[in-house]
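User: I'm new to structure prediction. If I give you an amino acid sequence, what do you actually give back? Let's try with this one:
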Amino acid sequence: MSSKMSRRKFIQAGATAAVGLTVVPSSVLGKSMGHMAPSDKLNIVGVGVGGMGFANLKNLESQNIIGLCDVDWKYSKRVFDYFPNAKRYYDYRKMYDELGKSIDGVVVATADHTHAIIAAEAMTMGKHVYVQKPLTHSVYESRLLTKLAKKYKVATQMGNQGSSGPGVRQVIDWIRDGQIGEVTRVDTFTDRPIWPQGLMTPTKADKVPSTLKWDLFIGPAKNRPFNNIYHPWNWRGWWDFGTGALGDMACHILHPVFKGLNLGYPTKVQGSSTMLLNDCAPNAQVVKYVFPARDNMPKVAMPEVEVTWYDGGLQPFRPEGVPAGKDLNDSGGCVIFHGTKDTLICGCYGVNPWLVSGRTPNSPKTQREVTLSHEMDWVRACKESPENRVETASPFSEAGPFNEMVVMGVLAVRLQSLNQELHWDGENMKFTNIPSDAKIRTIIEDGFKITDGHPTFNKTWTEPVDANEFAAELINHTYQNGWKLPAMP
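Assistant: Good question. You get back a string of structure tokens that encode the predicted 3D arrangement of the chain. For your 489 residues, that looks like this:
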């Protein structure tokens, strides 16, 4: 279902195809894209606008919003009404074909499994991209977007808005100033999921609403009948579409950890959860990453560190010195840096950092202060030339490797029945210690019932599959239904 041929025809048609556009593209005005005056307005389109995409676009309404695309026009009606002059589309490929020469930037806020293909195509067209978190659904997709951003020199931003906030900057400043000493352990948690998880696959199909293009929602995933449990919004808990609570919230909560401790690829990982189903993320998870020692900073060493993630209501044990009764959940989560000198705690998005000792250090500022919104800072970067661009707070050069770490943790949960610590070769995107004869199977139905007062389970399992092949598919998805990613640069 590639749209390359139709796009070629569009380009050949030139000005004729652009008849009827109400917004003059930047190039016509003599402004080369990526090198514009700050007062110039970008021409922006949104793909996946019914949910978080609407919030992003409202933060960008000072620019020209020229196109809106969503597979569900009922869910998106309020967005269409808010931007009445924008052209409306079900299929982003048609929007790219029709508006392609006028587009400066693309905001992607679809279900996780389609982030990569929409953003990758935009970048190959030379468009700047803002992509909601998690950046992608798989490790390979994250690596691809990282390299495409570098190749095409476009401005990029992942939608983990806390990275533009003062809390993340404060955390980094304190760590780099040596205020908490060396960090060898970090505990993190979120109060998510707040959407249904741990569900059996529906056994019946619901009628597809007339306003929904279900085939476009499915995109590169495997075909399945529509059911109201998947859409809208509840797709996050289904493996084919989302990445569960870890993929959703770790991009917010782990960002100050990844950046503050200069983390790269983990070398070891273990996952554990409540009942692991084949199709739906579990109700609660624990994931432990091990990162090797990094180069020391001027004021503090960077030894090997363990980072543990909890979700689904699970929390780490409280550090010594934290006042009794104090709720560590701040804005949906928490990070606890265990240092040799002090313990640093902050909330989700890095908000409200504090030291257990009660001190408030006056550390040197090391991070660029973002005075605009997360979205508008991306606009600023879009208008700067690649040679002189000041990067955003979460460009793909950083967000890509960070997101690889996040979604690799999802793999650890899905491979937990191997009953072993998994060793990760980040550079080559593969696990190195899964036995060659190892098999994986997961639960389809739990078969729970009460028999003579006793709870019983008659579980239905998938057929055993090769564990290495299963892992490889999770790392680099086989796209279905004719969809295809561009080649890795």
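You can read the tokens as a compact description of the fold. Here is one thing that stands out. The chain has a mean pLDDT of 93.
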